[in-house]
Amino acid sequence: MSSTAKAASPAPGPRALPAAARRAEGLRLLLRNPLAAVGGVTVLLLALLALFAPVLAPAPGDAFSAVHPAQQLLPPGPGHPFGTDELGRDLFTRVLYGARISLAAGAVAIAAALAIGVPLGAVAGYAGGFWDELIMRFTDVVLSFPSLLLATAIAAMLGHSLTNAVAAIALSWWPWYTRIVRAQVVSLRERPFVEAARALGVPGWRIVFEHLVPNALAPVIVQASLDFGSVILTLAALSFLGIGAQPPQPEWGLLINTGRNFFLTNWWYVTFPGLAIFLTVAAFNLLGDGLREILDPRTRGRV
Q: pLDDT over 70 for what percent of the chain?
């Protein structure tokens, strides 16, 4: 090729950042937001504490059914940092194992709500017409009930167990994701890349789940991170009411329900599980706010 032809050749356009570079850029933006960084680090520490609870717990056998009559309701001290409960079990161990239960149950509840809400919202937004009306009116009916009240009613009908409480939360939480995804898909379905896919004869279901849903996930991720703390709080509330986790599970809400009988004389019983709930909910809220600023193009430049 002649030098003239080379000069006339168009310069290559900007290349998209590889996945590793995008992740590094997102982490850099997250760390530049002090509150979001605190939330992210706290969530990471909580996850590590839950993961390594069997190693970190001073008395793993106390997590469930152990009984130590000689150590009943001991105050916090060198041998028991959080004190002991009415059966002599180490409360620090039970709070650590409670983190495993709460974080795992929260993740399952959010995942189940996403599995219901995201496909329904995508179908409603892309199909429009009858299906849009049917799905969104049913969504509005579910949203007309307060989520905690609806989760309580569903859990009471299903039976008193942690599994049923998680299912109840998922069944009361999915409409938020349906509305978010539907709004995103409606704004995307007439974009040129969707029109091009239609022109090439790509089936509608592939357009929805391979093109539209991936491009609609940013606000869903933000909402899920914000909801995680609320889900854990709702799970604790259901367990406190006696329709969630059941003894001897060391779930935080159940610990507070049991410890309230000893609160006036043994303050540590409810204080440390309550602090665990507070820190977890606050950490996920801070992390969610940071992710919103990072994933929203309108605010990314201010991070």
A: 87
Rounded distance between C-alpha atoms, residue 280 and residue 236, angstroms = 12
* Residue 175 belongs to a domain: yes
Q: Which of 276, 230, 243 is nearest to 97 (CA)?
A: 276
Cα angle 178, 181, 183; round to 5:
105
Judge whether 235 and 244 are in contact, CB under 8 Å: yes
- State CA 8 to chain mean position distance: 53
When divided into structural domains, the chain yields a total of 1
Which is more confident, 17 or 186?
Answer: 186
**pTM of the predicted structure, to 2 decimals:** 0.85
What are 286's two structure tokens? 């801070």
CA dist 155 and 169 (Å) reads 8
Looking only at Cα atoms, what is the longest distance across the chain?
Answer: 93
Q: Which residues contact 215 (CB under 8 A, 6 or more apart)?
A: 184, 188
DSSP reduced 3-state for 59:
coil
pLDDT tens column, 35-80: 888 888 999 999 999 999 999 999 999 999 889 999 999 999 998 9
Instruction: Compute the distance between CA of residue 59 and CA of residue 155 in angstroms, rounded to an integer.
Output: 32
User: pLDDT tens digit string along 137-159?
Assistant: 999 999 999 999 999 999 999 99
Burial status of residue 95 (CB atoms within 10 A of its CB: 0-12, 13-18, 19 or more): buried
Peptide bond into 247 cis (omega under 30): no
194: domain CATH number is 1.10.3720.10
**Beta-bridge partners for 84:** 90
Dihedral of the CA atoms 241, 243, 244, 250 (nearest 10)?
A: 60
Rg from Cα positions in the chain:
24
Domain of 156 in residue numbering reads as: 35-53+82-300
